[in-house]
């Protein structure tokens, strides 16, 4: 897991590679820093065979390792060297994120207390998980308690991801939930005192992250709605083939919600599920979690973020400003010549990998 407690490292590793293993593909991306400026060093993607990764579980390790190796070799503008330290994403459905309250104590006692407290918050025994934690800034909290962000994942899942990285000649250094990488890539697109929702519209599902105090991941949730499901809805409701449905969704988006047309009516049940889950999560966070103030906006990212009509529909139903995230803002690559020649859709789909590549790691992370 990410070494969140290492805040005073002495020796940085400046050359790493971000790795995102998704259900249908793998992505690699890395930067170089020269004279204080950041340049894209390597970027590549490779498709995975169907069933190689299912719901975050690696089912065909050989296929995933082969795809990573192919991507490593064909990356542009420079291939990814062997044994480069890898910062790898763990799927949201396989990670647990909790903010827990503890009496104020030093780090050693906090680490011991977390072992006992986790059993009440996370449905795994400490022996079966890999976990990490960090203190959450207290802000105006005068309760005398400290808040601690705990992130955990099954030990077997972490081992599987480490194994395929090693088979692809990469060195596992840090693993973290996709939401943490996305927050890092999007930093600066909201005020430090704002509470915001990041909605990642992936192909098969949507993932929600609520962020407070600038960068603190407070809450996550998965929603079984995505472009792949939209295509199935259209195919079934309109009586068209899967290929035709994909073309319709790609070009027409969600249809007209102001004057509902057949396309919108086909997607309406899925869209209502999406907005119901978003509204419910918002209400839960605002009324139940003390660290969360009023959520002020929604940041839309992921390969389905630019689906025609989706942003305006969410704005209308949720009553919140909804904007697209800028995947490259946190890189500091302001001049067009320094940015990769990727479409906006491709950039949004690589947001997680960009955030992973921005993670600074130290030699301590290999301990």
Can you tell me about this structure?
- The chain is α+β, with helices and mostly antiparallel strands and 367 residues long.
- Helix content is 34%, strand content 30%.
- It is built from ten helices and 18 strands.
- It has helices at residues 61-74, 107-121, 155-167, 178-186, 227-238, 242-252, 262-288, 310-318, 344-349, 351-357, and strands at residues 12-13, 17-21, 25-34, 37-47, 53-54, 57-58, 76-77, 84-90, 96-103, 129-136, 145-154, 170-177, 195-201, 206-212, 216-223, 295-301, 322-324, 361-362.
- The strands form five sheets. It has a six-stranded mixed β-sheet with strand order 7-4-3-2-8-12. A five-stranded mixed β-sheet has the order 15-14-13-16-17, sandwiched between helices.
- Helix 1 crosses helix 3 (155-167).
- The longest helix has 27 residues, at 262-288.
- The protein is globular.
- It starts with 11 loop residues before the first strand and ends in a 5-residue tail after the last strand.
- The model is unreliable at 2-12 (pLDDT under 50).
**Name of the top-level CATH class of the largest domain:** Alpha Beta
Oligomeric state of shown chains: single chain
Major sheet: 6 strands, mixed
Series of H and E elements? EEEEEEHEEEHEEHEHEEEHHHEHEHHE
Strand fraction band?
A: 25-35%
**Care to count the β-strands?**
18
Radius of gyration: 21 Å
Question: How many domains comprise the coordinates?
Answer: 2
Query: Count the helices. How many?
Result: 10
Overall average residue pLDDT? 87
Strand order of the largest sheet: 7-4-3-2-8-12
**SSE-based structural type:** alpha+beta
Distance between the termini: 12 Å
Looking at the structure, what is the overall shape?
globular
Known CATH architecture of the largest domain: 2-Layer Sandwich
């Amino acid at each position: 897991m990410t070494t969140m407690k290492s805040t005073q490292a002495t020796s940085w590793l400046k050359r790493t590679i971000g790795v995102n293993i998704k259900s249908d593909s793998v992505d690699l991306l890395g930067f170089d820093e020269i004279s204080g400026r950041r340049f894209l060093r390597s970027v590549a993607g490779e498709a995975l065979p169907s069933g190689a990764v299912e719901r975050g579980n690696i089912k065909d390790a050989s296929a995933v390792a082969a795809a990573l190796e192919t991507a490593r070799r064909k990356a542009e503008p420079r291939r990814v060297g062997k044994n480069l330290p890898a910062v790898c994403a763990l799927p949201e459905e396989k990670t647990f994120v909790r903010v827990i309250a503890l009496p104020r104590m030093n780090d050693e006692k906090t680490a011991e207390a977390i072992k006992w407290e986790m059993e009440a918050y996370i449905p795994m025994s400490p022996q079966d998980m890999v976990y990490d934690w960090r203190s959450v800034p207290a802000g105006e909290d005068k309760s005398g308690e400290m808040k601690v962000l705990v992130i955990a994942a099954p030990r077997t899942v972490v081992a599987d991801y480490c194994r395929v990285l090693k088979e692809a000649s990469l060195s596992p250094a840090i693993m973290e939930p996709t939401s943490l990488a996305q927050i890092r890539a999007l930093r600066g697109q909201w005020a430090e005192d704002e509470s915001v929702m990041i909605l990642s519209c992936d192909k098969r599902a949507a993932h929600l992250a609520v962020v407070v105090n600038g960068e603190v991941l407070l809450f996550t949730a998965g929603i079984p709605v995505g472009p792949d499901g939209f295509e199935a809805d259209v195919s079934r409701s309109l009586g068209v083939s899967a290929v035709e449905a994909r073309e319709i969704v790609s070009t027409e988006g969600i249809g007209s919600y102001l004057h509902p047309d057949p396309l919108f009516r086909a997607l309406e049940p899925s869209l209502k599920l999406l907005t119901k889950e978003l509204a419910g999560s918002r209400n839960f966070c605002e009324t139940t979690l003390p660290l969360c103030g009023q959520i002020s906006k929604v940041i839309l990212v992921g390969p389905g973020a630019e689906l025609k009509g989706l942003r305006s529909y969410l704005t209308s139903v949720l009553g919140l400003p909804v904007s697209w995230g800028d995947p490259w803002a946190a890189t500091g690559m302001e001049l067009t010549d320094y940015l990769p020649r990727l479409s906006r859709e491709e950039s949004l789909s690589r947001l997680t990998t960009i955030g992973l590549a921005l993670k600074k790691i130290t030699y301590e992370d290999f301990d």
